[in-house]
Write a structure and sequence with these properties.
Layout (H helix, E strand, L loop, with lengths): L1 E6 L8 E7 L2 E7 L12 H4 L15 E4 L2 E4 L2 H19 L4 E4 L6 H14 L5 E2 L7 H11 L16 E5 L3 H4 L1 H12 L3 E5 L12 E3 L6 H14 L5 H7 E2 L1 H8 L4 H8 L3 H13 L3 E5 L1 H4 L4 H14 L10 E3 L6 H6 L6 E2 L3 E2 L3 H11 L12 H9 L5 E5 L3 H4 L3 H10 L2 E6 L11 E4 L8 E4 L4 E5 L12 H11 L10 H11 L8 H4 L4 E2 L23 E2 L18 E6 L15 H6 L4 E4 L1 H7 L6 E5 L4 E8 L7 E5 L12 E4 L6 E2 L3 E7 L2
Parallel strand pairs: 6-7, 6-16, 8-9, 8-12, 9-10, 11-22, 12-13, 16-17, 17-18, 23-27, 24-26
Antiparallel strand pairs: 1-2, 2-3, 4-5, 4-18, 14-15, 19-20, 20-21, 23-30, 25-26, 25-30, 28-29
Helix pairs in contact: 2-19, 3-19, 3-20, 4-13, 7-10, 7-11, 7-13, 10-11, 16-18
The protein binds ligand MGD (2 copies), iron/sulfur cluster and molybdenum atom (MO).
The site of molybdenum atom has 4 residues, from loops.
Length: 678
């Protein structure tokens, strides 16, 4: 038996684990006792991370559509068809009729290469990835206030902090090893405030649980800041030395008295005052947030409010503090860092800056690179429906299940002239493709993932990919070569990382030799830079921290007579997104087999719904039938449905309305009706 240290392929917590293999097959997982995050533990998904790898459903050869059916093809044929298809769209409709979707499941090296392929070979900035559905609000909002859109502190700061404010993060289920660290902090005496109207597990350990209305976070946070300012609880010296724009903030929150905040949030004025005093009274406070904050038509505003609160109380740039967006996918931080974003190259270097474009053009060879920012993924679906996007290349995403308003997404994908999906399984999206390219998964290739705390860690090859499947970086290189483009021949991922380091200031000091055993936290700009656990210590990336006043806007779709319930969507502990991996993992599938809706007992009684009975949930966009799960986790008037299950797809119901700044969809609130299905 062989043990190989690698990174968990599920969440952004970034646990490292040992894959145990025997005779070329994975047989199990062991935790790493010395890793700074795992510390000898794993959650149930980590323990089962080997289980989907040898599943018989893995894609083993390229597939090409012929007479309406997908049939096996050789790599030579598939690559030729893909290049001809993409070039054909480009010739007929221009480069910007193409859209590339990168993957937060793939490595940094693979994300970097796909963005190089889009920009260098196909001359478009239309590249994006699931961060659009997830933390695009963070990238925009925190860049606005701090100059950098990443988690400011490290997970280990939880051990030293005085107070933790968890807002819109179900941490114990979605980032379990961070969740257990928060519970340990609460046990040693750190104060805990939870703002989430579901009674999530952390709420049981909280000093204060705020069950405010979905979509009312701006009102809550503005009111807390009003209390902090009016009671003289701000951190004056921090404010004066390190921030700008304070008068604008003070003016904007002045009207948000606790009474006004209470009227909008459904809390009592006393709860808001208590939260404000508790937060401002802490010697250090960490704000932890996730999708409850970002996935709104006012997601960027929510993020700005979190940043404002931290600036007001001096909780940035030191141990035990900070604004800490928990990044979701194992490598979504890396996908962003590598420039799989329509407006940035790697390292958040703007495509609009001529000097930056020149730097990349010179290194990559070739002529001019496109200057106008590309389309966000969520806007590309509309563009496809309107015929402006004609060809799409999707690497490791399943938008048919993960995009809002599934009917809209399906129509858009079906309308494309040419769709390529590069995957490890034949997903719902891949079934619509003209060509499917089979990829190696995390256990079958080398590379790096960057975790939520900006920790770049080595992913190691343990077993061979199934059949003819190839690593994503090998496939992208082959496509570029076949398109006649030089500069894509690499001996391996470490050579790609060397190129990333040259072109990306935050990764300048990163080499594979330096990453063993437990990685480095960026920014790490030179070969002797030890990395940066805490950002903005002396000054912000943008110099002074910028208060950014926010005006409250209600969610786009609120309950009415016809659709009287608030629907919020999210996740469960045992399943991962569209279920491709976890529903093929016996021990996880056994725990949670079918779609369900959480409904409060008061509502259930009124509707005559009993436990496990089928409930029909309907929105303006669609209707599904799922099993009722009667529970006081949700308050009356609110339903929760996870989006893992194709047979009860939450995204048939969700509202495809976008934040005007970040283009994130409002996954966290729409209006629905519910009744017992006869
Ligand atoms: N097991 C598992 N873990 C995962 C994932 C998975 O699919 N499965 N996915 C990963 C990914 S990509 C991500 S992005 C993260 C997401 O991690 P989380 O954001 O923690 O997960 P969600 O279930 O989407 O939503 C979190 C909470 O937001 C609350 N909420 C809803 N609306 C509001 C609101 O208006 N305000 C506030 N304050 N709270 C609200 C919900 O009640 C819910 O408890 O998880 C990662 N980890
Ligand atoms: N209603 C609702 N919808 C949501 C959300 C919500 O809270 N509510 N959350 C949104 C969020 S935060 C996110 S991040 C998205 C996630 O949306 P997606 O990214 O579309 O979801 P996944 O199921 O994680 O898709 C990843 C795919 O990558 C494949 N894969 C795994 N490893 C590899 C690899 O090495 N190479 C390749 N090529 N493929 C690989 C998997 O088989 C899987 O099909 O969903 C969003 N959708
Ligand atoms: S907490 Fe996240 S990274 Fe750690 S084992 Fe669980 S899924 Fe994997
Ligand atoms: Mo996410």
């Amino acid at each position: 038996m062989k043990r190989t240290l690698t990174v968990c392929p599920y969440c952004g917590t970034g646990c490292m684990l040992y894959l145990v293999s025997q005779g070329g097959r994975l047989v199990g997982v062991e935790p790493s006792s010395t890793h700074p995050v795992s510390r000898g533990s794993l959650c149930v998904k980590g323990w089962n991370a080997h289980a989907f790898v040898h599943h018989p459903d893995r894609l083993t050869s390229p597939l090409v559509r012929e007479k309406g059916e997908l049939r096996p093809a050789t790599w030579d044929e598939a690559i030729t068809v893909v290049v001809a298809g993409l070039k054909g769209v480009q010739d007929r409709h221009g480069s910007d009729a193409l859209m590339f979707a990168s993957s937060a499941k793939a490595t940094n090296e693979e994300n970097y290469l796909l963005m190089k392929l889009a920009r260098r070979v196909f001359a478009t900035n239309n590249i994006d990835h699931c961060a659009r559905l997830c933390h695009s609000s963070t990238v925009t909002g925190l860049t606005d206030c701090f100059g950098s859109g990443a988690m400011t502190n490290s997970i280990a700061c939880l051990d030293d902090t005085d107070l933790i404010f968890v807002i819109g993060s179900n941490t114990t289920e979605q980032h379990p090893l961070i969740g257990s660290r928060i519970m340990a902090a609460a046990r040693r005496g750190a104060r805990l405030i939870v703002a989430d109207n579901r009674r999530i597990r952390l709420a049981r350990h909280a000093d204060l649980h705020l069950r405010h209305h979905n979509g009312s976070d701006v009102a809550l946070l503005n009111s807390m800041m009003q209390v902090i300012i009016s009671q003289g609880l701000t951190n004056l010296s921090f404010r004066e030395r390190r921030t700008e724009n304070y008068p604008l903030l003070a003016e904007s929150v002045a009207e948000w008295t606790p009474e006004r905040g209470a009227a909008v949030t459904g809390l009592t004025p006393g709860e808001i005052v208590d939260a404000a005093r508790l937060f401002a009274g802490a010697s250090s406070a960490m704000i932890i947030y996730a999708m409850g904050i970002t996935q709104h038509s006012h997601g960027v505003d929510n993020v700005r409010c979190c940043a404002n609160l931290a600036l007001l109380t001096g909780n940035v740039g030191r141990n035990g503090a900070g604004v800490n967006p928990l990044r979701g996918q194992n490598n979504v931080q890396g996908g962003c860092d590598m420039g799989a974003l329509p407006e940035y190259y790697s390292g958040y270097q703007s495509v609009g800056d001529p000097a930056i474009r020149q730097k990349f053009a010179r290194y990559w060879g070739g002529s001019d690179l496109p200057a106008t920012p590309g389309l966000p993924l969520t806007r590309a679906m509309d563009a496809a429906l309107q015929g402006r996007i004609r060809g799409m290349f999707i690497m490791g995403e399943n938008p048919l299940l993960s995009d809002p308003d599934q009917t809209h997404a399906r129509l858009a994908l079906e309308k494309l002239d040419f769709l390529v999906v590069q995957e490890i399984f034949l997903t719902e999206t891949a079934r619509l493709a003209h060509v499917v390219l089979p990829s190696a998964c995390y256990a079958e290739k080398e590379g790096t993932f960057t975790s939520t705390e900006r920790r770049v860690q080595l992913v190691r090859k343990v077993v061979e990919p199934p059949g003819e499947a190839l690593a994503d970086w090998q496939i992208i290189s082959a496509l570029a070569r076949s398109a006649g483009c030089g500069g894509f021949s690499y001996d391996g991922p470490s050579e790609i990382m060397a190129e990333i380091a040259v072109l990306t200031p935050q990764y300048g000091g990163i080499t594979y030799e330096r990453l063993a055993p437990h990685g480095l936290q960026w920014p790490c700009s030179t070969p002797d830079d030890p990395g940066t656990p805490i950002l903005h210590r002396e000054q912000f990336t943008c110099g002074l921290g910028r208060f950014s006043p926010v005006t409250y806007r209600p969610p786009a779709e609120l309950p009415d007579e016809e659709y009287p319930f608030v629907l919020t969507t999210g996740r469960t502990y045992c399943h991962w997104h569209t279920g491709t991996m976890t529903r093929r993992t016996h021990l996880l599938d056994r725990e949670e087999r079918a779609p369900f809706v959480e409904i409060n007992p008061l509502d259930a009684t009124r509707l005559g719904l009993r436990e496990r009975e089928p409930a029909r949930v309907t929105s303006r966009r669609g209707s599904i039938i799922v099993a009722a799960r009667i529970s006081t986790i949700v308050p009356p008037g609110v339903l929760f449905i996870p989006f893992h299950f194709v047979e009860g797809a939450a995204n048939l119901l969700t509202n495809n309305v976008l934040d005007p700044e970040s283009s994130i969809p409002e996954f966290k609130i729409c209006a629905v009706s519910v009744r017992r299905e006869a």
